[in-house]
Amino acid sequence: MSTLKEILTRRPVAATIRLTVLAGGARPAPPVGPALGQYRLNLMAFCKDFNARTQKYKPDTPMAVTITAFKENTFEFTVKSPSVTWYLKKAAGIESGSSRPGHVVASTLTFKHIYEIAKVKQSDPYCQYMPLESICKSIIGTANTMGIKVVKELD
């Protein structure tokens, strides 16, 4: 049961917007401008706040952002770290995964690479309570589906 304070402070949601924006690269131009503009949200406030939150990442890093737009033209947003596939491709130094995973190996990574990616992903809102071992297993599964072989040590 909700308390009276929760009911009074609950704001009606107009929309949930999901975008992928380069770190530090939020500008009022597309794709950010039209997506936020149709809900009459403050573009410059979002751009400044997003760029400030993502300044620790390299500029070419694609960041997933979920924006909750409220009816009174305010918003909140959460920024997630880049996808596991992006990290795996960067670590392996490849443009794309194998066309035939399980048959053709696109690249090879070590458990240390997987561990480092898992440590970064653990800071995501949805992964912060997951054990590091579980995140590592999930990343290894993703690597296998991309045709990336995970080994103990590189030869």
Task: Give a topology summary.
Blueprint: H1 4-9, E1 13-22, H2 32-37, H3 43-53, E2 62-70, E3 75-80, H4 84-92, E4 107-110, H5 111-121, H6 132-145, E5 148-151
Parallel strand pairs: 4-5
Antiparallel strand pairs: 1-2, 2-3
Helix pairs in contact: 4-5, 5-6
Structural overview:
This protein has 155 residues and is of the alpha+beta class. The chain has 2 domains: 4-80, Ribosomal protein L11/L12, N-terminal domain (Ribosomal protein L11, N-terminal domain, 2-Layer Sandwich); 84-151, Arc Repressor Mutant, subunit A (Orthogonal Bundle), CATH 1.10.10. The chain contains 6 helices and 5 strands. The chain has helices at 4-9, 32-37, 43-53, 84-92, 111-121, 132-145; strands at residues 13-22, 62-70, 75-80, 107-110, 148-151. Helix 4 runs antiparallel to helix 5 (111-121) and helix 5 packs across helix 6 (132-145). The protein starts with a helix and ends with a strand.
